[in-house]
Amino acid sequence: MKAWIMLLAIWIISKPASSQIITLVDGNTQQSIAAGTYLVGNSDPNSQGFDAQRKSFSGGQINLNGLDPRDSIHILVMGYQGIHQTVADLIRAGNPISMEIASQELSTFEITSSRWGQARRQIPAKLSLISSKDRSLQNPQTAADMLGIGSEVFIQKSQQGGGSPMIRGFATNRVLLTIDNVRMNTAIYRSGNVQNVISLDPLAISSTEILFGPGSVLYGSDAIAGVMNFYTLSPTFSSDGKLLFSGNAFARYASANQEKTGHADLNFGFKKWAFLTSFTFSSYDDLKMGKNGPDSYLRNFYVERIEGKDSLVANDDPRVQKPSAYDQINFMQKIRFQAKSNLDIQFAFHYSQTSEYARYDRLTRPRGNGLRSAEWNYGPQIWSMNHLQIKGTSTSKCFDSYTVQGAHQYNEESRIDRDFGKATRFIRTEKVQAVSFNTDFVKNFSRRNSLFYGIEGIYNNVGSTGIDENIETNTQKAGPSRYPDNSKWYSAGIYVNHKYPITNYFALHTGLRYNFNAISATFDTTFYPFPFTTTKRQYSGLSGNLGLVLNAGKRWQFSLNLSNGFRAPNVDDLGKIFDSSPGSVVIPNPSLGAENAYNAELGISTSITDWIKIDVAPFYMLLQNALVRRDAQLNGQDSIFYQGELSQVQSIQNAAKAWVYGIQAGVEIKLPAGFGIWSKVNYTKGEEELDGGEKAPLRHAAPFFGTAHLTYSKSNISADIYTVFNQEVSNDQLAPEEQGKDYLYAVDANGLPYCPGWYTINAKVNYRFNKSFILGLGIENITNQRYRPYSSGLVSAGLNGIVSLKYSW
Residue 525: helix, strand or coil by DSSP? Predict the structure, then answer.
């Protein structure tokens, strides 16, 4: 009898867990955790001899089916304390399992989910995380505002429906946006500021990672200055086989622009199937600026068409920026299927659409005693994506895990402008079809020795049309398009990365990527006598990185990262047709070459004690063959008439070098009784080479900026009192292109444009009534400052009250 009992006990202990799924949630917000990594082994993962299989998870769930209950499992999620238990103990703990925010110690448990999971202490490049908790407390209105939460990315705005990220002196088509590891950048991302990031819904994003420095080894072209990875909510399975119905309802109001936002997301989870639906609607009225600041920022009058005539109308309240209002909807539908314990399939559909909205800065340009433009609007900005992702693990000799992704994106945008007193409205519309495919593999030779490799293919087709409309006769005729219609842009790449432990404390990272790019376009000579009709260009090259990471105990980390990046010209660079700026027009240049960046970065992080953490990251970057706007000629003429105005001919050329250097630094202090202090500062100095060999300030090098916070987190309350600040940019430190935009800037004592320094004082608090209700309150710009961030056309909000309510079930 004893023998039978013993055999039964052995069978129970050794029997694999059956249909066991654990759900991980944030210990504060109770939100599902997006993604992470877990290690499975048969010994203590903190021991030097621990050699485990590394697996990734998404949707906040880990399937324990097939694991031995006696195995140790170590769950690693960036920003959270690691969980180390046996499989059996995790099953007994029940659902959901809360993960707590990491302490100030340089936690081994932090990971990044960019392409694959890695321990944070093993990453040589600087990385920043914006968590769902950060987003919940700060209550950003758009995805662009969300990027600015950590004060490490500078946000420029030309209109309220916008937000262009600047990273380490570069922006727009030199920084890469990805959503769930699918690149958003298309062939018409321009060198001027872009607003495409607002297509993303911050209320449907679970976490955001910002990788600083070239990311060309992983992502190919465009990732010169950094990569911003957005990870959206994922469907959650039922852990017991019964229907799991959960979700969130959210409403917010903000006073400065009368914002009204409503959001709901619903999850239906079964044993092997899960469905998630998310919908958000936002309405923004005209934005009201602050009371205390330069009078030159005031909107004293604007244009209205009265009885068939353009008229200047006095603004009842010059602090209200008319017109700047717009609306937006976002929709996301995800379907997830777990075919096997080692195979996860997920399909996602995203859709975003804005109303038509004004480009505010173009509507403030003066002409004589009036205004230059009667209309300057962006048409509805539409973005949609179909995305299929397959993740799995394997016992293959070639790889342990893999991710296969295919995506189709559709982008539509248009520009509608008309000069004051003129009858012709110019309508330019672009539609981009973007198809991408990539496969990533991971082979773990040991816990710290891993090989990552993959392939990627991208195809963009650009449709571009032009219409000239007479608003008096209501007639239309064909006009020149902004880009060559039916132009094509291709990219294909193969990469390999190797993480090798030289010692238990010293790791070497190496990476290499070969990339091929091509572009083809046919130019329409109906409207302008171009001396060329077609172009076909091909580009290829190698990108690499070398990183060293030294972990000197639990309190010190040193890293060195050397990398290079590249950017092949896109359709906007090579084929843009007459994009007007005041007094100049741009013509195509079909002979452009690629630009290349070389980067060096040093990272130092230390936890001096259990309650103080300091990190600094000095960096230096050289950009060669930089694509810049320079004066040119068309058929021997340096000026032509464009839309009735004599304008200087320009084109994008490989005509410069650029240098960028600076330092990013931060400190975190954990105080007693739930209080804390943290601060981040960024200093960037950028210069570019002019035609004569002189140097001039780089346009997208932001001024010294940063933030300082006093936080409190205890029980049901999270609170934050903080300041955000920017240094002054004097006239001689403005880029030449910015010096010519005097309508954007204040005037110094010499009558020259400059950007004054500014600061704001702000307060936010979240109060959790219970597991279901969270009330959010905030006051931004308490001292009601009137300020315009560097290079922005829109004046930021004045005193702004925010109230939100979230209900979860």
Answer: coil
Cα 802 to Cα 782: distance, rounded to the nearest angstrom: 12
CA 91 to chain centre: 37
What is the sign of the dihedral through the CA atoms of 749, 752, 757 and 760?
positive
CB 127 within 8 A of CB 112: yes
Report which of 231, 239, 224, 178 is spatially closest to residue 205, judged by C-alpha positions: 231
> Which pLDDT score is estimated for 157?
96
* The predicted structure's pLDDT at residue 367: 92
- Residue 17 has a pLDDT of 37
- Number of helices followed by number of strands (H, E) in the chain: 7, 53
Give the whole-angstrom CA distance, residue 75 versus residue 56: 10
Region label for 51, one of left (φ > 0), alpha (ψ between -120 and 50) or beta (otherwise): beta
CA distance 100 to 379: 44
Q: Residue 351 and residue 508: Cα distance in Å, rounded?
A: 41
53 class by beta-carbon count within 10 Å (0-12 exposed, 13-18 middle, 19+ buried): middle
Closest alpha carbon to 697 in 578, 773, 790, 789: 790
Q: 């209950």: which residue's tokens?
A: 69
- Minimal CA–CA distance to 336: which of 94, 31, 32, 27? 32
Using CA of residue 641, residue 643, residue 645, residue 650, what is the dihedral sign? negative
**Whats the size of the chain, residue-wise?**
809
Q: Helix, strand or coil for residue 341?
A: coil
Q: What is the pLDDT of residue 538?
A: 95
Cβ-contact 523, 484 below 8 angstroms: yes
Q: Is the peptide bond before 323 cis (omega within 30 degrees of 0)?
A: yes
Residue written as tokens 């604007």?
302
For residue 467, the surrounding DSSP H or E stretch is: strand 450-470
Cα 630 to Cα 650: distance, rounded to the nearest angstrom? 5
pLDDT score for 598: 96
Dist. CA 460–CA 49, nearest whole Å: 48
Q: Checking DSSP bridges between strand 675-689 and strand 753-754, what pairing results, if any?
A: unpaired
* Cβ-count burial 522-559 (b if 16+ within 10 Å, e if not): ebbeeebeeeeeebebebebebbbebebbbeeebebbb
Q: Among 197, 202, 201, 130, which Cα is nearest to 162's? A: 197
Task: Find residue 98's DSSP bridge partners.
Answer: 25
Distances (CA, A) of 239 to 20, 34, 67, 242: 6, 17, 16, 8
Residue 397 CB contacts under 8 Å (≥ 6 apart), including other chains: none
Q: Is 636 exposed, middle or buried (0-12, 13-18, 19+ CB in 10 A)?
A: exposed
Residues in the chain where the model's pLDDT stays below 50: 1-19, 45-51, 103-110, 113
pLDDT for res 112:
55
Radius of gyration of the chain, Cα coordinates, nearest whole angstrom:
27
Q: In 554-694, where do the E strands start and end?
A: 556-567, 584-587, 595-609, 612-631, 639-642, 645-670, 675-689
Residue 739 sits at φ, ψ, to 5 deg, of -60, -25
As a whole number of angstroms, the distance between CA 317 and CA 256 comes to 13
The answer to whether the peptide bond before residue 96 is cis (omega within 30 degrees of 0) is yes
CA gap 207, 232 in Å, rounded: 7
Amino acid at residue number 484: P
Ramachandran angles phi, psi of 348, nearest 5°? -135, 140
Paired tokens of 329: 């909807």
CA-to-CA distance for 277 and 279, rounded, in angstroms? 7
Q: What is the pLDDT of residue 85?
A: 74
**Distance between CA 67 and CA 342 in Å, rounded?**
11
**Is residue 415 a contact partner of residue 482, using CB atoms and an 8 Å limit?**
yes
Instruction: Determine the longest span between alpha carbons in the chain, in angstroms.
Output: 104
Of 223, 222, 204, 201, the residue nearest 213 (C-alpha):
223
Cα separation, 310 vs 332, whole angstroms: 41
